[in-house]
Amino acid sequence: MSGITMTNLSEVNLGKLTASVADWKKIVDNLKKLADRAEKGLLAKSEGARWAGVNSDVTREFVKKTAKEFADAHAEASSIYQVLDDACTELVALQKKLNSAVHTEAPGLGLRVNDVGDGKVHVFYPHDRTTDDTHTEAELNTAQELADRIAEIITQAREIDDSVSRALRKTHGSDEFNFGHQNYTSLDDAQEQRAEELAKKSLALYKEGKELSTEELRELQTLIKYNADDKEFATDLYRGLGQEGALRFQAQLSLDGTAEGGEQLRLARSIQDSMGTALATATPGLGDKWTDELMRVGRSDLDLQMQGNQVAPKGYQVLGTLLRHGEYPKGFLDKVGKDMIAYEREGGSWGRPDGNYGGMKNFGLNADTEGGRGWDPVTGLLEAYGHNPDAATSFFNADVAGPGKQMSNLDYLMGMGADGKGDGARQWIPDMTSPMAAKDPVIYGKDALGHALEAAVSGLPYDHGDVGAHPEHSQARQDIMNQVINAVAADPKLADDTMGDSLGRMAGEYMPEVNSTLSQSDEFDDLYGSPTKFTDALATAEFLDTVGRNPDGYAEATLGAENYSAGVMQDANAHPERYAGTPAENLKHIAYNTGTVEGLLSGARHDQIVTGGQQSDQDYNDALQKRADMFNTAFGSTVGLATERVPIAGEVINGVTEVVVGEVVEGAERNTSAETAHTAGESSFNARQNALDQASNGLQVAGTPAGVDPTDMRRDVTQQTGEGFDHGKELQREAKDHYKRNPPK
């Protein structure tokens, strides 16, 4: 293993390496000239001469060998140059990143970085005599994040150093009197060949009941991790391993790692993540024929060739674990997704191990800490759709392949079925190793379904960061959202608890349509960008009632509604020319509609607390705080981003959510020490007051329209919010009748 440390990388003079690369380039050019002269001159004359006899036979062979050595010398020099050139470029970039982190970022954050040797660093806040040296959790997290980032840079530099060393040894070979051994076109080429060599060695060892050493596994993990996004590396790796070999390799490592735990599991998890990213990178270059063969293997039992193994998963089950990571092209997902669902509808099944593995709760194909054990490949497929919005939209609107009555993929997976009542819909199972599934009946696939639906209706990956203007709500996206609303309204049980956060974010993303649908007048539709209304206002209310009964859903939708309202208020006051009504009229209407949404959600929360008791109330508080914390630590990545879209020319109103989030969380915290009924009543009372407070906050952000008395405006907005809140509670009371007819499980 390379001995590079932080100090080595920071202080080394890479100018010498740059000069060496330039020298090797000259050597390559000169050897090319000699090789050409040997081939076109010496060899050509020897071959063309009218020459016979023993001397002729000996000399001709000598000339051929000499010419070949010149060619081999050129090839070897070219290989050395390519590897050194790539290494120099990458090391220069890493050195720049390291020095920026150590000498610029760290001091700016009040941190110091010490080199502790062996590639490790210590990042800390220096002693301050004026304080007691205590630091907030956020400050400690900042220090750890910087330490991890610096360690990653050093690890990558060490791998480059090791890869160059291996490549140069193989290029030169062990015969000092002979040129032309292993040649490389780039450093990536050398690293890919080494990764493929280790993966194939792993496959061979498992046949013998053995495995790679921990050191070899670490090397393989590092190689794949830092090259997974490189198209040439990823494509060559998957071509070299082949469809079946790649899936077998992945399954062997995951099953071994989840059974053993510890370092083996950590490395298996990292390799699985990187292999998924690498497959996503490689698929455009692998082509349709490669994908077709992958699909054939996907439907087949996979012989894992492990001594004593009793598991023979389908290829698709292993592929599903890879699909969780990376961003796959739409064409690839269209083919694989259609075939996977078709296989199910044709009667295909996804097996799980029997009770022999009952003592190993985490034993499975998925090495990740979350998302189930990987026996259900549709979970991974849906995670892949969650990262490709266009593919997700197309997938849910398409008809599911297979026998029986026709239905869309949305009907099949969401549970509506061919008749809207579940006929032919997918039967979901807990994705755990039997018999552990009986102890942990969570349907992990439903969480992934929520992610895919988020992407499909928003046009953004479900885990997107700050993206600015959001994509428009196309008809195809609106159709899916409308179907989800109507389906959940008709049967609340379709909204699995694990989907609560996704449904809440979807509600937040579609606040323009929600507000327009629930509005009592079409006169103000332009406030919401004149969006397409949902087909049924009552169904929309029933949908929000279901969302509000889930703590995560309530948190997402509440923060989303408040943030969106503040943004529209600001836009309506700043750009009155865009709207038909006066600024004052528009602000009052926005307040009324936002109050309506808040009333609906609050009513649902009230009923759930009465049903679930004090713990349910605490769950709401915890979920709301968690969502706010997530938002505040990564602005725009969770709550708020989906709802920051002001539907006027796709503009984004910045700075709104910071004002709103803290107030929402503080105002929504409840005292859970009282009896259930009293607690629910107090929650509803406080929720109403919170809505009034948030309306005032929104007005504060927006500002008072010119020529309007601020006190009057604040009073009118507060009054309209309260009336809207009460109206929303009335709508919720009508909506909850569905729970009497269709009580949730």
Key features of this structure:
745 residues; mainly alpha; two-stranded antiparallel ribbon; 2 strands; globular
Written description of the protein model:
- It is built from 24 helices and 2 strands.
- 66% of the residues lie in helices and 1% in strands.
- The chain starts with 5 loop residues before the first helix and ends with a helix.
- β1 (112-117) and β2 form a beta hairpin.
**Average pLDDT, all residues:** 82
Beta-strand fraction estimate: under 5%
Strand line-up of the largest beta sheet: 1-2
- Largest beta-sheet characterization: 2 strands, antiparallel
Q: Could you say which structural class the secondary elements and strand pairing correspond to?
A: mainly alpha
User: What is the tally of beta strands?
Assistant: 2
Quaternary structure state of the chains depicted: single chain
Q: Which series of helices and strands comes N to C?
A: HHHEEHHHHHHHHHHHHHHHHHHHHH
Ranges where pLDDT stays below 50 over 5 or more residues in a row are: 632-675
Give the proportion of residues in helices.
Answer: 55-70%
List the total number of helices: 24
Overall geometry comes to: globular
> Taking Cα atoms only, what radius of gyration do you get, to the nearest Å?
32 Å
End-to-end CA span: 56 Å
